[in-house]
Amino acid sequence: MGAAWDRVQKVYLNIIHASDDRDRSPEAQAASDLYYAGVSGLHGLLSLRKKIAKAEKADLAGTAYQPFIDAADRFERELIGLAGTVRDLKGKVVKGRAPRPEPVPTNPDQVRGTCPCCFSIQAIRSGTMVHHGYQRPGDGFQTASCPGIKYKPFERSPDGTQAMIDSLTARIEKDTATLAERGEWVAITNMQSVRISAEHPNGFKMVTFKPGDKGWDRAVEGRVFELEQALLTAKRNLEFFEERKAAWVLAPLHKADRTVLPLDFEG
Q1: Is the distance from CB of 50 to CB of 18 less than 8 angstroms?
Q2: Residue from 58, 39, 59 nearest 49 by CA
Q3: Is the pTM of this model over 0.70?
Q4: Main-chain dihedrals φ then ψ at residue 224, nearest 5 degrees
């Protein structure tokens, strides 16, 4: 399913890459929203028709984005029947085949809770979330952990969620101010693809444009587009965290074996 949706998204990418400039029309925004909506699993496919209908309200017929909306429509029509069947079969046991036993936790007494920043279930140590969300790609280092490691689990406090709200609010204010000052920009640095060489073994180099340079106007358009998309994502995420915080109630933690702990247990 994921690979099939990737092919649908490539139709959209081919359209915008073929354009000489960044399209700011309602039709372009509708196509962009559908592209970023994504289909990562069964739930996304089941809700795709609503997203397509929303994009169709912008009347993409006859525009450069019509092939994209047509591809998304074919994708949904071909798979929605199968998705509905899988949904209906969820939770049912195939006759003659015993359900798989739940895995036995290696540490059944491990205390777990919900991270207030990424909302995944993680272990708790000394009252706060353990390190999670990182990767160890090799060479003796690891990437940064989820910021939730600084806070109590969501069951005990919404402080971590409030920190995400504060961070997103600051980001939105900063990017909004940067967009408003676009007429005062003095330089824009972008990464551009070049021929692979000893100087550029990865096929990329950093290029800085200044007012008056050839390519300055296109660099500005690209930067504006990036900021607008970042703002769109940040605002959606902000809405999510605000809803979570508004619904917060004190809740008990549990152990890995699902034993519910007393309400006043802090981990």
Answers
A1: no
A2: 39
A3: no
A4: -60, -45
Written as one letter, the residue type at 256 is: A
Label residues 153-189 b or e (16+ Cβ within 10 Å = b): bbbbbbebbbbbbebbeebbeebeebeeeeeebeebe
Q: In what order do the strands lie in the sheet with 121-125?
A: 128-129, 121-125, 111-114, 254-255
Q: Bridge partners of 167?
A: none
Tell me: the pLDDT tens digits for 75-85?
778 877 777 77
193: part of which helix (H) or strand (E)?
strand 188-193
| Residue from 82, 74, 54, 53 nearest 7 by CA | 74
217-222-5 Cα angle (round to 5): 150
**pLDDT tens for residues 114-139?**
999 999 999 999 999 999 987 776 66
| Count of residues in the chain | 267
CB-count exposure of residue 208 (10 Å: 0-12, 13-18, 19+): exposed
